[in-house]
Write a structure and sequence with these properties.
The protein has 360 residues and is mainly α. It is 46% helix and 3% strand. The strands form 2 sheets. It has a two-stranded antiparallel ribbon. α4 (79-96) packs antiparallel against α5 (102-115), α4 (79-96) runs parallel beside α10 and α14 (280-294) runs antiparallel to α15 (299-309). The longest helix is centred in the N-terminal third of the chain and has 18 residues, at 79-96.
Length: 360
């Protein structure tokens, strides 16, 4: 629940939370302020996302005659792994609000590190598995290969970034069906005809599986390492930023199937990537850029980090439209159904160029 609500509030800002999901009790639930959702507001009966996660972790430790088993698709009933996922979610939430309340962010992260019970191996990642049958396939596969096969392809800008870095994850993330096995991309917002479908670079099996069986990765070991690297750098939490940054890159590459030998060779051959250099902000940019690359397949987290830090530096899409064509949207617009059916939608609705509470 905490993860789902965090996704909603991160994308839209103020959303129904404390009164949501209660059926006829609140058919038109109140929109809670984003800061109340993250921090809590006792006078309004709003439990903070931090306390929601902590109460879930506490529930896991209570005696019970009935325990989940194979019907738990994520961890197969292993409650110790769920506790690790919960604590790692606290790290993510803390970093999310670090602009608005660095003191709280530092305290939460330090407490989690003291407890030493978080995702610290790729086998512990909080990821949702899928299958190959229609209706049970990875959502990115279903969208990109079944429902809308002509809708998405590799961005030219991302291809340029990966080529500039010589990053070995590129063929793990995307197919290379172009002439001679080359990558074929399309620039964001371009209006020229797209390449033929057969030659387009699209998500590869690491992201979608060959037939839709790849998991969706929600909270991961490499994400945890990058969070702690940034926290050590800018908040002064325990840990060495360089070592954690290296760990983040390494674990992401290992996750895609690159061997440890090849990871080590890449880092040795690319010191400008491997070594944090320059000012604190320059180092933060390196960390977030690598985190952004690792998040291929989870655009929401990359979008959150971009709005929170301004990194990586992104150019406007060509032919941009909307509330403010001169800026990358800072939030999602409320949906027409919500506006029509819930009179509690904020009025006026914030434009997409209005930042959310925790953003830079």
């Amino acid at each position: 629940m905490a993860y789902a609500i965090s996704v909603a509030t991160d994308l839209w800002g103020d959303v129904p939370y404390s009164q949501a999901g209660q059926g006829l009790t609140f058919p038109q639930p109140r929109f809670d302020k984003q800061e109340d959702i993250y921090w809590g507001n006792a006078s309004l009966g709003i439990t903070s996302l931090f306390d929601l996660v902590k109460s879930g972790i506490a529930d896991l430790a209570k005696p019970s005659a009935i325990l989940p088993g194979t019907e738990d698709f994520v961890y197969k009933g292993d409650l110790t792994k769920w506790a690790r996922a919960g604590n790692t979610l606290l790290l993510k939430f803390a970093m999310q609000i670090s602009n608005a309340n660095p003191t709280l962010a530092k305290q939460v992260i330090s407490d989690v590190l003291t407890g030493n019970n978080y995702i610290n191996a790729n086998t512990l990642d909080f990821e949702v598995p899928f299958g190959t049958n229609t209706g049970n396939q990875n959502a990115l596969y279903a969208y990109n290969n079944v429902n809308r096969p002509s809708d998405q392809m590799l961005s030219t800008r991302f291809l340029t970034l990966m080529n500039n870095l010589g990053d070995p994850r590129l063929p793990k993330f995307y197919t290379s069906p172009g002439a001679g096995g080359t990558f074929t991309s399309y620039d964001n917002g371009a209006t020229i005809p797209a390449p033929a479908a057969a030659t387009r670079s699209k998500y590869n099996t690491y992201i979608t599986g060959a037939s839709g069986e790849a998991p969706i990765r929600l909270v991961t070991n490499y994400q945890r390492a990058f969070i702690l690297a940034e926290a050590a750098l800018v908040l002064g939490t325990p840990g060495d930023a360089q070592a954690l940054y290296t760990e983040g890159i390494t674990q992401s590459m290992l996750k895609t199937g690159i061997s440890q030998t090849d990871v080590t060779a890449y880092l040795l051959a690319h010191p400008t990537v491997a070594i944090l250099t320059g000012s604190t902000e320059a180092k933060r940019q390196q960390i977030i850029t690598q985190k952004y690359i690792s998040f291929v397949g989870n655009g929401i987290e990359a979008y959150n980090d971009y709005r929170r830090t301004g990194y990586p530096v992104l150019a406007l899409a060509q032919n941009a439209q909307g509330d403010d064509p001169n800026s990358i949207p800072k939030r999602f617009a409320y949906t027409a159904n919500e506006i029509q059916r819930n009179p509690n939608v904020p009025k006026p609705q914030p434009l997409t160029n209005v930042k959310v509470w925790w953003a830079k």
